[in-house]
Each structure stands twice: as structure tokens, then as C-alpha cells.
Specification:
With 230 residues, the protein is an all-beta fold. The chain is built from no helices and 20 strands. The strands form four sheets. A six-stranded mixed sheet has the order 2-3-5-10-9-6, with no helix packed on it. The protein has a five-stranded mixed sheet with strand order 11-13-15-20-19, with no helix packed on it. Strands 12-14-18-17-16 form a five-stranded mixed sheet, with no helix packed on it.
């Protein structure tokens, strides 16, 4: 039998942040003081009205020395959040602004090491020449990963997602994340200008309570991207 240590019971000075919907927690305008989130999983997201402090502006929000997230300056804020299911050394990753003007954050541990990831909005990426890039799309979040494009996709580049991808059955030509109500869609053009018309699943693995799907796109029709309009 494996014994697990019980989670510490928050003091009376802490009050809980409840889920707003799905796996989403929202910091309301009038929130303040000391709060805690008991279950912040790999699928969870935190929405805030103001951007969290990011000292080196790398998009990773690390916690204070006390292991608690300070919404202002580290170890100097009157508004703090304690997470019980997140590695404070990894912290949160910033995923941009949603359509409601809220800033979106999720566990930084979920993003594969070295992977390129955009925001919850519309992003455009360009694959690097002679470099095997990995592009990450976290469709398992309630916000989804937006409608994105990748140009110059190389033969050694890969896609990793937290939901299965397939060709849009409604004929948009995009690759879409199955079961993603946040709206994750992807258009890929390779180094020859061909547009991806499907994906091949290379492998899957489990981590952070999620299933990761590793893909390479297929270009069976040989169709090329249209010239841009001016």
C-alpha cells in the first residue's frame, strides 16, 4: 500500500477560488487577499483581468520564494494564490488574451521541452531551415489554441497536440482538433509550398493527466497555397 501525504489544510486566512466553468478559474475584479486553488490540472487555465508580473518577459510566471504566486511583485503582493497541484518551480505559461479581454495562463509543465507554442488567438509560424522544429497545440484547454498557420514546414518538423487532429470534415481545408470547443484549427504549408491535407499519427504518450499526440502532416494531393492578395 502506498501512503500519500495529505494536502495541507489552508488557514482561515485563505479562501478558495472555485471553477467558473470546465477547468477554468477566473480572478474576479474584486478578488484580493490570500486565495488557493486545490485542483489545478494540466487541463486547467487561469484567467485574469491584469497581466501577471513577468520580470524577464519570457512568458513563464514563476512563483515567489514562498512557493506562492504573487499577482504583483514577487514576495511583495497583497494578493496571492497558493496552488496545490502545480510545480512552483515550473510555474505558469502565458497564452495571450482571449476574446473577452482576459489574460490566459496555464501550467508551464504541460508544454514539451523546446516546443514552439502560440497563444489562444490566431498565430503564424515559420519553420526554421535545417532545424527540426516541434510545434505544440494545447487544444485540451477550454480556450483552445486558436486558428494558426505554419509556413516552411520541414520534413523533420513535428506537431504535438493534446487532442487528436484530423482534416476538417466540413471542407475548410484546415486540420482541426477533434472535440475542441475552444476552436483549434491549423493550416500547414511545407517548404515546397504544398498545403497539408491530413496528418499521420506517429506516437502518443501520457503526461500531466493528458494524452499527447505526435503527428507529421501529409501532402497527398500536392495542392499549393494560393498567392497572397495585394
Amino acid at each position: 500500500m502506498v501512503l500519500r501525504a495529505a494536502k495541507p489544510v489552508p488557514s482561515k486566512d485563505y479562501y478558495s477560488i472555485t471553477k467558473y466553468y470546465g477547468n477554468t478559474y477566473i480572478i474576479a475584479d474584486d478578488d484580493g487577499g490570500s486565495q488557493y486553488i486545490e485542483e489545478f490540472s494540466g487541463k486547467s487555465q487561469l484567467l485574469t483581468k491584469e497581466k501577471l508580473y513577468d520580470g524577464n518577459k519570457d512568458g513563464i510566471i514563476q512563483f515567489g520564494n514562498n512557493g506562492i504566486l504573487d499577482l504583483g511583485q514577487p514576495d511583495a503582493s497583497s494578493h496571492t494564490i497558493r496552488f496545490y497541484d502545480i510545480n512552483p518551480l515550473k510555474g505558469l505559461r502565458y497564452l495571450g488574451e482571449n476574446g473577452d479581454g482576459q489574460y490566459v495562463y496555464a501550467s508551464a509543465a504541460v508544454r514539451p521541452k523546446g516546443a514552439i507554442e502560440g497563444t489562444v488567438g490566431q498565430d503564424s509560424f515559420t519553420g526554421r531551415t535545417n532545424v527540426a522544429d516541434t510545434f505544440f497545440f494545447d487544444g485540451a484547454l477550454d480556450s483552445g489554441s486558436g486558428r494558426d498557420t505554419i509556413a516552411n514546414f520541414g520534413s523533420e518538423d513535428r506537431i504535438i497536440s493534446t487532442l487528436p487532429f484530423s482534416l476538417d470534415p466540413f471542407g475548410s481545408g484546415d486540420l482541426v482538433a477533434e472535440g475542441d470547443f475552444g476552436g483549434s484549427a491549423l493550416s500547414i504549408v511545407d517548404t515546397s509550398g504544398r498545403v497539408a491535407d491530413g496528418v499521420t499519427l506517429l506516437s502518443t504518450y501520457q503526461a500531466h493527466g493528458l494524452t499527447y499526440y505526435v503527428y507529421k502532416p501529409t501532402f497527398t494531393t500536392g495542392a499549393t497555397a494560393p498567392d497572397p492578395e495585394f
